[in-house]
Specification:
Blueprint (H helix, E strand, L loop, with lengths): L28 E4 L3 H12 L5 E4 L11 E4 L1 H9 L3 H7 L1 E3 L1 E5 L5 E6 L10 E5 H15 L5 E2 L2 E9 L2 E8 L5 E6 L2 E3 L13 E14 L7 E7 L2 E7 L2 H5 L3 E10 L17 H5 L12 H6 L5 E7 L11 E2 L15 H18 L3 H17 L39
Parallel strand pairs: 1-2, 1-12, 2-8, 5-14, 12-18
Antiparallel strand pairs: 3-7, 4-7, 5-6, 9-10, 10-11, 13-16, 13-17, 14-15, 15-16
Helix pairs in contact: 1-4, 1-8, 2-8, 8-9
Amino acid sequence: MGGQAKDDGNAAPWAVPWSTRWGGCVVKIAIVGGGIGGMTLALALADAGLRDVDVYESASVIRELGVGINVPPHGVRELAELGLLDALLAEGIPTADETYYSKHGQRIWHEPLGLAAGYRWPQISIHRGRLLGILHRAVIDALSPDRVQTSHHVAGVGQDGRGPWCELVDRTSGAPLGRVGADLVVGVRRAFYPDEGPPLWNGRTLFRGVTVGAPFLGGRSFANIGHSSLRLVVYPISRSHEDRGDALIYWVGHVATDDGRPMPPQEWTYAARLEDVLGPFASFRFDFLDVPALIKGAEVVYQYPMVDRDPLPTWDFGRITLLGDAAHPMYPMGANGASQAILDARVLARELALQPSIEAAVTAYDGQRRPATSTVGGSDGLPESRRGARTGRVHQSRERGEPTGVRGDRDRL
């Protein structure tokens, strides 16, 4: 059933009774952060038969916030294996194609996406909050509501002779909640890289919003308009809006910042001034889309610097590891961030099921996912000194052979 995690009878083919693993020990896992990666990991572990899992989230409640997100077939495949395809299709749009346009609206390139391109799974464009809500509900169904602990901020992690631990603080009151032990802790980059410094900014600023409007280009299209210094990406994200004849349109503008201007605040909910985004896109009026009208129609416009970090030398810290943004923060390009976190979660769950120890599972996970994510993201806009840190563009993986996810008996995309 869509939105439901699979029951034990439909669990992953490599799933085993966890109480019989590693000398009869029951494995306890602490996940730091209840975002898309953390929730996917909790659900993937439950799918593998492990249910002693706690998700610690700093926010006081899991809110379905954010704007749009695009999940390519390799990400949808992993979520479909967790029983979520029906729920995703009920909320999002199966994107049919992508078209590139010049800043004058001239068509440059067109290609099919997802099922239309011959993949076995669709590419789904969806509101980020709706995707998180689907995952959250599935985790609650698979585990229990008290396994997602809100207002639990992880102030620090470490490990001693008894294993890893998390130091918890009530995010609302600031009161200490004590130290919680586990067999594996997933999260908290700063504990191992405290002197890493600020993220690296490429001089571009993202302006993002959602607007209710008329369907464009057939109603299921992904449009990429402009050039590297001034670009707009736009696509519909809501099935319910489509069903009633309009569209909930997600748009994100990439604007090169003038030399000498400071980096904007790194806050996902930082509201921009309307004139800051309208000015650069004032001439983007086309027969298929009126971009200034689209921008004016948004209830709020969010602003965020386009930042990432260089790849880390290791995610392997014995019984502590990293996942998602904690492991590989990257530019929000090519549908990379969330999809790579989903793949992280599925691979880690698989290795925990297959390897003879937690340490071996973490090493195997690090050996697969760290090199893969280090080459994702693209070098567009990077200074020459940083090009090559992440090269290539993974928008839709067309590799053949062994899947990077957890179903080794399934065809590659």
